[in-house]
Write a structure and sequence with these properties.
The complex is a heterodimer of chains A (554) and B (303). Chain A has 554 residues and is mainly α. Chain A starts with a helix and ends with a helix. In chain B, the strands form three sheets. Chain B has a five-stranded mixed β-sheet with strand order 5-6-4-3-7, with no helix packed on it. Chain B has a three-stranded antiparallel β-sheet with strand order 8-10-9. In chain B, a hairpin with a 2-residue loop joins strand 5 and strand 6. In chain B, helix 5 packs across helix 6. Chain B starts with a helix and ends in a 5-residue tail after the last helix. Classes of the chains: A mainly alpha (554), B alpha+beta (303). Chains A and B meet through helix 1, helix 2, helix 3, helix 6 and helix 7 of A and helix 1, strand 2, helix 3, helix 4 and strand 8 of B. Chain A: Belongs to the KdpA family. Chain A: This is Potassium-transporting ATPase potassium-binding subunit.
Chain lengths: 554, 303
């Protein structure tokens, strides 16, 4: 079998698995987030937390709860890292330097998992397991919770109530993330991922040299890093490391894990608004964009244009032998289409256009299918913008799922989509204007600009992958990218919740002849088009100076 | 207002602590406990392997260096891929090179100059020159043709900086000066002339970026004799595997160094080759660590 055929079968099998799982799993999540019953263990947790799980919250209270939880998380994780030297299982590592600790705390709380540090030489087992990996669970749960509150804005009428953040948070952790993570962790261990508490220990190698073998509770963290679209590797090499991703089939499982929740949530949405077809329409937009992107990056990587790839004869730099070029490219597409940012190969060494696709994926706003939760509310806001654009064209009041999209709603939707471009473009421009920050680039010319543009795109979209040649563990980058992550995560979240609050108050308009049907292929095409055009117009100039300038010459 | 603010943040802290216990202590310890079962424990502990004498020699899935004390490859071992992890295959410093597809211009070392730490200036090699240099060295080690597109015979990137007025597309139609940027004087440049202009060698420390950078393809085959995985660094720097083509290229050298037949070596290569998972996932690969360990058992090298 040729590599190309095998690569196509690899993609096809993932598509089949996701299609098969998205209905039952989406239905399961629907039951989880609409059920009025609490599990016994959950009741115990609510008592320990000290909240009433049945108290409904207004959008503003829901948003404040999200922010309070995130603020406390950042402070806790910062302190945890700073005090590492006094804790158990620290492997002899001292406290993490202040600017890296701040950046990392924000990075993990915002579901970004941008890593300005190298895992194996900075973080002890306890900080990884009880600090960083905990945020892998709860930041994912926060994303899912906000998405559920957002959907309730469409599903409910004439109410201020969007659900209870603490209940959604606990249920997402206990009923969705933990069971899947536990099963998948055992599967990964069977494949060769490690799960131990060993100190790094030295062995004498086959050829008589020495090598220090590292350990750690890796498998338990690896699965939630993918499932929660977090992406923060236990080790610097992330999912390229044989202890994190030992075989070609664990690679398949990791891609499946990082896409399964985001692709299943539209089903949950369809069930919650009482019209499954609306869910199919949303998942169709996501799937269309995702498949196009996977194809584009595979073509670019297998064609291996460019000077070094031509000299090598393949786009092999930065890829592992056991995965090969095609499966690496598919992972790269999946990790940037979601907000994961885990890598099994190094994007900085990709062909110019292949690397450009990873950047474009993030610039789309990570909606195809996007991060857990954030992908769904991002895509639904794009749908809102689409009905508005369509309404302008035919001169009717735009409505989506029976809710009128008026001036107030459009203001929130527009602000949602302005946040990221502002952060990315202003951040990149500022860095490029400062000689000290330019010196952080490893590569020169357009590729150097791509490194900086990638960094701000990744941070603002809470992705966390990198053109990793850029030296980012400097106070300037740690601070600037930390701010990009905070604003890129929480401003859109607050705008989304505000929009949901405004929608929930309305009573639904009855469907009439003038209503734009939002479950037909036409609408799917329109949302995909609006997504591409909105992003294309915003980021094209920046992409033209980076990956396009590098990849299209002669 | 103030009390609701406080109440909310206290609830947040309690929620975080409770969830930290559940997801950050109970969950990983439970997975660890399950991983102590027979069948899982070996891999959970790192898939460690032992030599014939019973000593642990590393992990089955973590690559190793097979070089002598001088850093040169040992002829009787299959050589793994180049590694960017520390000084090579260092699990405490896993890394990729992160050099881009158009990394083609070296910074040549300036003789006598010191870096910030007072060590002699070693310059930095572009990815292209690294690839060319590895290909040439492997070609010499294994007795195959080490040439590649865009590489000079001396094993550096074949790249010119062309100075002169540019046309509308940015090309230099009438060069005034041409420098082979990766070949330090007094080297003889890989081409004597370019568009009628004599090509100069490069003077370390001079900036040739103002010229147009032109990589020169040359006449080498598009599919070189030295396989692509042999000249590129992996993502982790710990890749335990090489491609079957790479193993086949090295087999005759290893056989000669150990005094056994190439067929015997190729049989062993076959035993340590893993096909694609389920027939379509990943790429076929040869585990170098296990292969070399097995070779030591079957046909120890007599030095």
């Amino acid at each position: 079998m040729s590599s190309t055929t095998a690569g196509i079968l690899f993609i096809g099998s993932l598509v089949i698995a996701l299609v098969a799982v998205h209905r039952p799993f989406g239905d399961y999540m629907y039951r989880v987030f609409t059920s009025t019953r609490h599990l016994r263990v959950e009741r115990g947790l609510y008592r320990l937390i000290g909240v009433n799980p049945d108290a409904e919250q207004k959008w503003s209270v829901y948003a404040r709860s999200v922010l309070a939880f995130s603020l406390v998380s950042v402070l806790f994780l910062y302190a945890f890292q700073r005090l590492q030297g006094y804790l158990l299982l620290n492997l002899g590592f001292k406290g993490v330097p202040d600017h890296i600790a701040w950046n990392t705390a924000i990075s993990f709380v915002t579901n970004t998992n941008w890593q300005a540090y190298s895992g194996e030489s900075t973080m002890g087992h306890l900080v990884q397991m009880s600090g960083l990996a905990v945020q892998n669970f709860v930041s994912a749960a926060v994303g899912i919770a906000v998405a559920m509150a957002f959907v309730r804005g469409f599903a409910r009428k004439k109410t201020d109530e969007l659900g209870n953040f603490w209940t959604d948070l606990v249920r997402a952790c206990v009923r969705v993330l933990l069971p899947i993570a536990a099963v998948a962790a055992i599967v990964l261990i069977a494949g060769g991922a490690v799960q131990n508490f060993a100190d790094p220990h030295t062995v004498h190698t086959v050829a008589g040299g020495t090598q220090t073998i590292t350990g750690g509770p890796v498998a338990s963290q690896e699965v939630i890093k993918e499932l929660g679209t977090n992406g923060g590797g236990f080790y610097n090499a992330n999912s390229a490391h044989p202890f994190e991703n030992p075989t070609a089939w664990t690679n398949w499982i990791e891609i499946f894990l990082l896409t399964m929740i985001a692709f299943s949530l539209p089903r949950t949405f369809g069930r919650m608004v009482g019209d499954k077809r609306q869910g199919y329409a949303i998942v169709s937009v996501m799937a269309t964009l995702a498949v196009l992107s996977v194809i584009a990056i595979n073509v670019a990587q297998l064609a291996h244009h460019g000077t070094v790839p031509t000299a090598v004869g393949a786009a092999a730099e930065g890829t592992e032998t056991r995965f090969g070029v095609s499966n690496s490219a598919t992972f790269a597409a999946a990790t940037t289409l979601t907000s994961t940012g885990a890598v099994n190969s190094f994007h900085d060494s990709y062909t110019s256009l292949g690397g450009g696709v990873t950047m474009l994926n993030m610039m789309l706003g990570e909606v195809a299918p996007g991060g857990v939760g954030s992908g769904l509310y991002g895509m639904l806001i794009l749908a809102v913008i689409t009905v508005f654009v369509a309404g302008l064209m035919v001169g009717r009041t735009p409505e989506y799922l029976g809710k009128k999209i008026g001036g107030r709603e459009m203001k929130f939707a527009s602000m949602y989509f302005l946040v990221t471009p502002v952060i990315v473009l202003v951040g990149t421009a500022t860095a490029m204007a400062m000689p000290g920050q330019r010196a952080s680039m490893l590569n020169t010319g357009p590729h150097g600009l791509s490194e900086v543009l990638y960094a701000f795109t990744s941070a603002a979209n809470n992705n966390g992958s990198a053109f990793a040649g850029l030296t980012v563990n400097t106070p300037w980058y740690d601070t600037a990218l930390g701010l990009a992550m905070v604003f890129g995560r929480f401003l859109p979240m607050v705008f989304a919740l505000a929009l949901a609050g405004s929608l929930a108050r309305q009573s639904p308009t009855p469907v009439s002849e003038g209503t734009l049907p939002t479950h037909r292929p036409l609408f799917v095409g329109m949302v995909a088009g609006v997504t591409l055009i909105l992003v294309g117009l915003t980021f094209f100039p920046a992409l033209a100076l980076g990956p396009l300038a590098e990849g299209i010459h002669q | 207002m103030r009390s609701s603010w406080l109440r909310r943040h206290v609830a947040a802290l309690r929620a975080l602590l409770v969830l930290t216990v559940v997801t950050g202590v109970v969950y990983p310890l439970a997975i660890w406990a399950i991983a102590q079962m027979p069948g899982l424990r070996g891999s959970a502990d790192g898939s460690m392997i032992k030599a014939a004498d019973g000593s642990v020699v590393g992990s089955r899935i973590i690559g190793q260096s097979f070089t002598g004390k001088d850093g040169n490859p040992l002829r009787w071992y299959f050589q793994p891929r180049p590694s960017a992890a520390g000084d090579g295959y260092d699990p405490t410093a896993t890394a990729a090179s992160n050099l881009g597809p158009e990394s083609v211009v070296d910074t040549l070392p300036v003789p006598g100059a010191k870096d910030e730490e007072g060590n002699p200036d070693e310059g930095t090699q572009s990815l292209l020159t690294q690839v060319c240099g590895r290909s040439k060295a492997i070609g010499e080690l294994d007795g195959v043709d080490g040439s590649r597109p865009f590489c000079t015979k001396s094993g550096v990137g074949a790249v010119l900086s062309v100075f002169g007025p540019r046309d509308a597309t940015g090309r230099v139609t009438r060069p005034t000066r041409v420098v082979s940027v990766n070949e330090a004087c007094p080297a003889v440049p890989f081409v004597a002339t370019y568009r009628g202009v004599t090509v100069e060698c490069a003077k370390p420390g001079e900036d040739y970026a103002p010229g147009r950078i032109v990589p020169v393809r040359g006449g080498a085959r598009a599919t070189p004799a030295v396989p692509s995985d042999a000249v590129t660094a992996s993502g982790s720097g710990l890749d335990p595997a090489i491609s079957p083509a790479n193993a086949r290229m090295q087999a005759p050298r290893v056989a000669t160094a150990r005094g056994i037949t190439t067929d015997r070596v190729l049989d062993l290569v076959g035993e340590h080759t893993t096909g694609r998972s389920l027939g379509f996932m990943g790429e076929p690969s040869v585990n170098v660590v296990e292969l070399n360990l097995d070779l030591d058992r079957v046909a120890p090298h007599k030095s």
